[in-house]
Amino acid sequence: MNTATFKGGLNLPGYKENTERLAIVPASIPELVYLPLVQHIGAPCSPLVKIGDQVKKGEKIAAGQGFVTAPIHASVSGKIKAIEKMGHPGGNFVTSIIIENDGREEWAATVKPRAHPGDLSGEEIRKIVWEAGIVGLGGAAFPTHVKYAPVEGKKADYIILNGAECEPYLTADHRLMLEQAERIITGLRYILKATDCQQGIIAVEENKLDVIKHLQEILINDKQIRVQPLRVKYPQGSEKHLIYACTQREVPVGGLPLDVGVIVNNVGTAFAVAQAVEEGKPLIERVVTVNGTGIKKPANYLVRIGTLFSHLIEESGGYQGETEKIIAGGLMMGKTVFTADIPVVKGTSGIVVLAHTAGTVKKETSCVRCAKCIEACPLFLEPTTLVRLAKRGFWEQAEKNNVLSCIECGSCAYVCPAHIPLVQYIQRAKQAIALAKKGGGKKK
Ligand code: SF4
Ligand code: SF4
């Protein structure tokens, strides 16, 4: 197989065998759903409803100001029970709309199939994607319509659908590509139209041979879309590395994929686009993998946005052994959360629960100058230097050493024999630099 890849990277154990062959099943719909007003990058939403209002499934209940934002829709029909702050997978507290599910599953009148979706213009498709509240479902949660908006002097030569799913334990994209291949391809055709682009690529790691074969069979005579098998390597799904692997184009430091003529979307995003364009369905559910050594029955679920992690963990038979950590997202780039009473949001691709095993809690020791972190970094940074600067608060020096290019992939911390939480120090430096740029802090 003619596989593509990038320079560097790590060979990680996949830990996907528990769920990669399990079909997506609908999770039970909870009695209460919790919809945070921030589920995307950009302007937060404000409620369009008040306590006591009756809402229908798919009804728009919150929207933000400006262009870089994404509206939020009711994921169940029922009554608005509360609008209050609660825990969010991002680690903070966010005002959330809580809906008491009436069990009727009544759709809003706005949700109905479109008679002639093929006749829509690119601009009309972009508007539908915005109105449907679609964001990047790979975890970044960037509003999708913003990626599609025309930019003067720039043109997309390729739309790449990211089906790499290089994070250990996650199989949501794998299953979606296998079970909904036609809809994903349909979504990609609408994206091509919305962006006035001629070439589509669906990029899949070669450990998902069933998906590659299935897609290639469907696309056998297609001149516009091709399947690009990728080497199994971490972080193959990172936007910059994916673009390089598929096109040999390098996104400059501080640049965007469109600077090199590329737009990247997750495969789940393309599926959501097809549903929005053809069925008028907003983003109210997504596929979530629940997996890890600390879970009794790992599974791939179709989940209503706003379902609590604890609900899904219970649905998966509950915890197994003593829980060491719960991660929102993947093992490497996901965020450790301190409670399972937080909701699935649009960007939640997985819930990984790790059980405590003897010796798993590693104590940080001094750097032994082995340079393993430098060898592992897919961006050719010097993580050990960045951490030294971050520990001393030398933010300006850290910036000169390209700390802002770090994609927080965790490869450096994974290989570090001294168990230094390199990513945490790097994040601290990035936050301090961002604050200083806003005028809220001092650069040393
Ligand atoms: S420095 Fe950043 S990009 Fe490089 S390995 Fe560490 S986390 Fe990944
Ligand atoms: S891998 Fe860890 S111990 Fe080795 S140089 Fe990097 S920070 Fe130091």
Q: How big is the Rg?
A: 22 Å
Fraction of residues in helix: 25-40%
SSE string: EEEEEEEEHHEHHEHEHEHEEHEEEHHHHH
Uncertain runs are none
Structural class: alpha/beta
Main sheet characteristics: 6 strands, mixed
Q: Give the bound compounds.
A: iron/sulfur cluster
The portion of residues forming beta strands comes to 15-25%
CATH topology of the domain at 122-279: Rossmann fold
Q: Number of helical segments?
A: 13
The count of strands amounts to 17
Report on the architecture of this protein.
This protein has 444 residues and is of the alpha/beta class. Among the domains are: 122-279, Rossmann fold; 372-441. The chain is 27% helix and 20% strand. The protein has helices at 122-131, 144-148, 172-179, 181-195, 209-218, 239-247, 267-279, 309-315, 372-376, 383-392, 395-400, 411-415, 422-437, and strands at residues 25-26, 32-36, 45-47, 54-55, 60-64, 72-73, 78-87, 93-101, 158-163, 199-205, 225-230, 262-266, 285-291, 299-304, 323-328, 335-337, 350-355. Helix 1 (122-131) packs across helix 4. Bound molecules: iron/sulfur cluster (2 copies). The site of one iron/sulfur cluster (SF4) has 15 residues, from helix 12 and helix 13.
